[in-house]
Every structure is written in structure tokens, then in C-alpha cells.
Amino acid sequence: MASGVAEAQAASPLSSANRTDAVAAGAESDFGGFLDKSISQAVDTLKESERVSLAAVSGKASAQDVVRSVLAAEMTVQSVVAIRDKMVQAYQEIMRIAV
After folding, report:
1. Nearest-angstrom CA–CA distance, 33 and 27
2. Which of helix, strand or coil describes residue 44?
3. E strand spans, the chain
4. What are phi and psi of 13, to 5 degrees?
5. Would the CA dihedral through 68, 74, 78, 81 be positive or negative?
6. What would the pLDDT profile of 4-58 be if each residue is shown by its tens digit?
7. Could you give the CA distance from residue 99 to residue 65 in angstroms, rounded to a whole number?
8. Which residues of 21-40 are buried (b: 16+ CB within 10 A; e: fewer)?
9. Which of 31, 61, 67, 74 lies 20 to 30 angstroms, CA to CA, from 47?
10. Counting beta carbons within 10 angstroms of the beta carbon of residue 70, is it exposed (0 to 12), middle (13 to 18) or buried (19 or more)?
11. C-beta of residue 52 within 8 angstroms of C-beta of residue 65
12. What is the rounded CA–CA span in Å between residue 64 and residue 59?
């Protein structure tokens, strides 16, 4: 099995440098896409929570629906804050690197 993997890698038209560049470019676009999708979902969750809360004020939504949507919004905000904190921490770590 291992020899099959080695043969497939050897037959690949990409050199190891090109593979590394392709992986780095793919990871960069994947992270950007992930971040964009996560932010969009967070905004959608918060908008939905606001919509349900306004519907409850007018008597069109139950208290259970409001609690469920507010809890989802709270979890979303906590996730966004955690991601922000990790990004700030990573930035600070990069800035500490001596050049």
C-alpha cells in the first residue's frame, strides 16, 4: 500500500515546491471562506433572534421560541468573541517574533 502511495506521488506532475504552494493557497482560501461563512452565519443568527423577539412583542411568537433564539444568539456571540480572542492572540504572537 505504501509503495502505491509513493508511486502516485512520484507520478504526480507537481513538484514538491509546487505542491506546497498549492496547499498554502488552498488553505488560505479555505480559511478566508470559512471566516466569511462563519461571520455570515453569526449575523443571520443574530438577525433571526431579533426577528423572533420582535414577533414575541407583537404576540406572534411564543416565549419558548424567544428563549431558544436568544440562547442561539448568545452562543453565537460567545463563539465570535472566542475567535476574535484567538486571532488577536495569534497576531500578538506574530508581532513578538524577532526578525
Report:
1. 10
2. helix
3. none
4. -70, -15
5. positive
6. 444 544 444 444 455 555 555 555 578 889 889 999 999 999 999 999 999 999 9
7. 54
8. eeeeeeeeeeeeeeeeeeee
9. 31
10. middle
11. yes
12. 12
**Which amino acid is residue 67, in one-letter code?**
V
CA nearest to 39, candidates 87, 92, 79:
79
Residue 56 contacts by C-beta under 8 Å, 6 or more apart in sequence?
62, 63, 65, 66
Burial class of residue 52 in the structure, from the number of CB atoms within 10 Å of its CB (0-12 exposed, 13-18 middle, 19+ buried): buried
Q: Which three cell numbers stand for residue 30?
A: 479555505
For the record, the C-alpha cell of 58 comes out as 407583537
C-alpha cell at 12: 504526480
Cell of 14: 507537481
